[in-house]
Predict the structure.
Amino acid sequence: MARSVALYHLRRNTATSVAAAVIVLLFLLAIFGPLIVPYDPLATSMQEVLQPPSAEHWFGTDQLGRDIFSRVVVATRLDFAIAVAAVAISALAGISVGAMSGYLGGWLDGVTSRIVDVMMAFPLFVAAMALVAVFGNSVQSVVLATSIINFPFYFRLARIEAASRREIGYVEAALINGNSSGSVIFRFLLPNSLPPVIVQVSLNLGWAILNTSGLAFIGLGVAPPTPEWGIMIQEGASMMMSGEWWTVFFPGLALVLSVFCFSLLGDGLRDIADPRRRS
Amino acid sequence: MKHRTLRLIAWRLLMALPILFGVIVVTFVLIRALPGDPAIVYASGPNMSQEDIDAIRRAMGLDKSVFEQFLIYLNNIAHLNFGNSLVTGQPVLKDFGERLPATLELAVFAFALSLVVALPVGVLSALYRDSWIDQLVRVITSVSAAMPGFFFGLILIFIFYFLMGIAPEPIGRLSGWSIAPPTVTGFMTIDAALIGDWEIFWEALGKMLMPAASMAIFAVAPLMRMMRGGMIDALDSDYIKAARAYGIPRRKILLQYALPNAMLPVLATMGMVLSTMLGANIMIEKLFAWPGIGSYSVNALTGVDYAPVQAFVLIVAVLFVLMTLAIDILSAAIDPRYKLKG
Amino acid sequence: MTAMLEIDNLTLEFETPAGRVHALDNVGLSVDRGECVALVGESGSGKSITGMAIMRLNGPNARIRASRIALDGTDLQGLTDKAFQTIRGRRVAMIFQNAKSALNPLRKVGDTLTDILRAHAPERLSRRDARARVLDMLEMIGIREAEDRMYAYPAELSGGMCQRIMIAAALLCEPELIIADEPTSALDVTTQVKVMDLLMSACRERGVAVLFITHDLALASAYCDRAVVMHAGQMLEDGPAEEVFVHPRHPYSRMLLDSMPYGKESAADLKPMGGNLPDLRRDDLPACRFAERCSRVQDCCRTQSIPEARPSEAHAVRCFFPHD
Amino acid sequence: MKRRDFLNVAAMTGVSLLGLRLGVTPANAQGRNDVIRVLLEDSPNTFDPSGTGYNPASCNISWNVYDRLVTFGVKPVEDKEDAFIYDYSNIVGQAAESYEVSEDGTTITFKMREGATFHDGRPVTAHDAKWSLDRAVNLPTSKAQLGTGSLTSPDQFTVVDDMTFQITLPQADRFTLPNLCILFPAIINSELAKEHATTEDPWAEAWLKTNEAGGGPFTVSRYVADQQFVLDRFADWKNGEVASAARIMAQIVPVASSRRASAERAEADLVRELSGRDIKDMIDAGKPRVLGISNPARMVSIALNSEMAPFDNKLVRQAVAYAVPYQEMFESVLYSRGTPLFGGSAETTEARYPQPLPYTQDLEKAKALLAEAGMADGFETTFTIDSSLGTTAEPIAILMQEALGKIGVTVKIEKVPSAQMGQLQTDRALPMYIAVGGAWLADPDYFFRIFYNSTRRWNYGNYQNEEMSKLVEETRFETDEEVYKTKVIRMVELAKDDVPLILLWSPFQDTVLSDAVHGYEYMFHGQLELRPLYKS
Amino acid sequence: MTEILLEAGAIVKDFPLGRGKHLRAVDHVSFKLRRGEILGVVGESGSGKSTLARIVARLLPQTEGSVWFDKANLASYSGARFARAEARRDIQMVFQDPLASLNPRWPAAKIIADPIRRLGTPKERDKVKALVEEAAERAGLPLGLLNSFPHQLSGGQRARVDIARAIVLRPKLLILDEPTSALDASLQAHVIQTLMQLRADLDLTYIFVTHDLNLVRLISDRILVMQKGALVEEGPAASLFASPREAYTRELIAAIPQLGQRRVERAGREH
């Protein structure tokens, strides 16, 4: 029934379901995109530099004559992969440590919470920049930096969820049934903290994409010529003023569209997860 | 009661010290992990010999052990000495003194802008829950939340400055030809108002509009969502039902019963938004050549200029701690149930 | 002489995402002047919804139909929302189950009380005069340290105290009718009697009619003149309290009493009732919604409209086969 | 007086009475005609001409605020109206009214200019010259450079009398006078500087970093790092014609598109550091005025680490040099805004450098060379770019990656922050990267000495060749023109054959000027020479 | 006299309030429980009755005092540590709010089987299934509902799942913490009867914690009355109701509404 109610809300909330559909489509593009794009996203062509959008080049070409449509599509894979990996790492680490901290309390909670307080007090973007700078300009360090700066959100979420459920009936029942602390955390608390976590994940995927492109925009992280939306925007930014708006517009549009869909989906999921927000 | 509150505030500030210490340690370690030898960077002349570089390293104290460097750094901080910037060659504190007001003014203005947009819209959205207004607002705010500030800024510059020519040049706080009012608060608008120079006042305000809008765009969605959620929770609550049952006029219910209660969760978000605006406006500052601490510290970071980065992180952390405290105090002032966490 | 409150044929449905809920079906009841009527039933029986329907507080998704919802002979249904505002709190007041959450947590209780008074003041009532009248009221109903209480926030008061404040709030504008919705079910037994005594004697003194919504039959019998038994949105029995509770005529009333510990000697004397409340989202609800749980059920109960039996002038039972 | 100005003055007087810091000096009744607004990408980081860690942009201040004993004269640029360029062969007096070189060339005597003063009114004397040069040969930043002109020790500098200053040299050196014209040997107000010197800091480095003690055509009236600096005309300047512009307002605008927009809308008078594409667009549009001046001593190249495999093999370096898509790169990256340094003839006739290397894209030849080197299947390598290099570096890297891919070489592009880049260069840890360099002194042997020899970072290709070292030594003091020419031609041949640096081009220094601005002079350092600028 | 199953000696429980202050929730409470007995624990909210129940169930550690169960001292075991103790299978608990006490993500069968998997010996799938079905049957839960999730069940059915989970390992002592207070009267009678039947069938001993004095009177052998953490009065149910010794007990009993016993006189009808 819960499932059918969820489906019902999904159906009723057009925005959410459209967002979900677009995300599925984008994931498909991320997987199959490189197979279906009309041009090699890396191939330069001096004869076709900065062509406006046309039937041949739907999104036009960039300053090296590369097909922007192909690059935008292929970039989906990298941007999504980074976002998914980063969010997966931070979510897994964050909720595990958070749930332990919240449930067990005591000195463990004290220490981890202080550490997270320190992390929260850091200016996020600067922290991400510094981390990428430290670990070197690579996809891995963008993933690592993004997951580190997102860790506190999951930690806090899981910690509050776990702490609020410490004395809830089914945890007491679990103890009565002979479950150890670890078993209580991983069999009872974590699965039940999932709905808010899923909402957070959905919103976070969007932020992670934004973060990646932000880093790329200031020249950190992914190295060219890898197609990446942030890099494309950064490269195109200087061309906007000379009228080649398509160099910025389409990667930006792809970026906005995917972040938008993730946040819309997260919003919708939140409404479904939290019955009070329902009408 | 007053006395107790003061004690609690003092206690809270004391409790923030370990956090700040943690920030100092992490920053210190992180920044020393940065690739690049500051002595080499500083000795920018490619014609310098190894001896020259070593001499510079000694002069910068980088030949000492990291632990020793840390103790020296701590001692300096204790004396409010944040060192000198390699990039600008000035004391970091002086650099910040010149830049922080610009960042603060922009952040405050952007913050005000986002509140002015988000809060009424959130209330409206809650009042007309699930109507087309609500749906439209949610779609628009979701789009705005998805818009990277730098992209939005680019679009604004392109449309309003480049194409239409109605926006001022996206460079700095004043036009290149105008004379800045004497620095009193460091806030260009306020300083202009202080000497009654309204032309400069309006110019400074106009200059802030596009960067502030670019910064505000990310904040509108979370604020609006919290406002909407808080308002819905408040409207669904027993006390609103009771107030209606007692015939209290609708206006009064909205303004004196629902709104204050709905503002409570928004307060926390406001804190988050403001601190993000202070710490994460780097790209906007770069885009608009805004003379703030954001672009300053990014330059420092890429130039392995230790002192400004350390100071920047510390300052933002202090602002964050103060902001959290301010939000706590504000919450306690509004909500009698809210206890300042000691 | 007209009754203080008269409800005829009240039917209410909720439109929800999961379907239409048939919450109330042809409910009729009346409360005379100065009378205390208990509205009893299990959870889900529709008793609170009935109370809210009178106050028009059911929310935007409620569809209400009634032939009559009259206060002192005037049908309220024709009133605009704005006009209805003057009824709420002024002529009909309401007391809620959870007093603590029914008071604005950010407002001193004294301010909430003056708000109510000023909302209904015929001419501009100064804040000062309003406060004075509130203080009088608090003292009159025997709240100790009334002055201090006015400066307290709800969170600083006990549940019992909050409920006393709510009683004061209800009495403040000298209403003709008070709807008390489970006013003490969140309280401990010892506090419960004190608060109930306070509420009922205050209403008696002022001649205020009370519609007392509760699931506690003993409590109802201890304070009320008449009792109305509801089940699944239907009114089943309506009569003098002692008759309904001591010699119930409707099978449901009787089975409900049998399942309760009152007057029993041992656990073995408890007689569980069969079945569950019907799902009110069903579109094929039987005519008598108790039919599926009833031991006396026959075919007519499911299909034909239920007749009203009158064992005595003041006692009505809606059943084909009532007990004698 | 306009109302606003009156208010400003009134308010500022009031404020200064309160002891508050002033933003800028209030005396600015001039209109826009007297003020030249400049937009730059990078901010100066010191006022000190010998400041440790100075960046190129700091020339914009130190060059215009200080004078030197002598300076390069200027000559009109060929094919350009209203534009001048420094004349390396014409060295004229500046702080020194005149100078005299002894017959044997080991003594140079300078006569200081009568009546010339520093900004604080103190007369400029030979003592100041002595202190300034002592300082310059002592500080690490300037020491090495001045050494290239045989200026190494304070003992060489003598105050003959208050107004006569003498330099003695161990031997005649044609690099001495040019070295006195560059940035470092600026004449500092020694009395003022000494007031701020300490025992730990005898040369007042700390103070001079953000304070000026000069006597040049401009004074610094406001400086906020990374934001702006304002220079005001020094009206009592005696060492030449007083600047026409009363004030230079320079703003630092890191975003190129914003600089371009301001240039196009003529909101700024002088805009620097625009991309080739922006410049080309403006030239195509015919508005505003673009001055592209080529500095023959500047070059953009691809450095191949000659000591690191596989680039330690000359054949591999040549193969790479044949794989570069020069013309494509020149057009699509630079939009042809420069002088090509590729496609030259194999035979060397001219004794100048840099000159076009005899390479063009020839993939077959590249493949053959690789095969000859025993790497027919190619290899893997890394191409490093400095993240601060901006718009040109990435396309170069991408085109290189694509082109090398065609001869079987797999290239990974790595982008590192400039801070790290410096260290990697110093550590000689990079196999292949973009190197940008330029010599202040135009002699070809000088160029080879610093870019194709030495152990310092400037030897980008990490090139070690005994013959080159020998030639570099031999040409140092060579005065016989024929011998010199022969040896230089041999060095050029080595550079062509060994290609530790694949030269790409010498970029134009493009400057966008509003219609009102005239008198542009290009200096060897590529930064702004402000004094001659005037507005019509 | 039957043997003593459980003996609590001078149990004290303090909850820290911060800054060295404590709330004493249970204050030196001692009692004995005989095998097969039903001990009612009554008191108003804040009386410490639930805390006492949790200490006996080893969900909470006591601050002071001893808990002897089946001649073993359990005082050193609590919470997660008790999970490994021998007596864990013998002490089970039924909770107040069955919706909260059932893991919302598990079907009823899995919930009931959890104690077997954690504590029980048979691990074979069909043996576990058989045990689960037996317990469900005893608790009056239709077997067809075993695959339902808690939110798909009615309140009464949830209570039965909770009971089935508690009895599946045949414990000796069942602690019932307000097991019916969330239920309507008609369901309460069902659950009470089920519990009475189980006790007869499985030879269980009950500690029945409740605020409902009407109910506790019917089912308990002995009653403990608690107030503000302290034990006020203890005695056999009948005599305690008939002749309470302590003023507080008297006040409590007097406050119980009784059917047909008017408290505020009705006004004469005005017609």
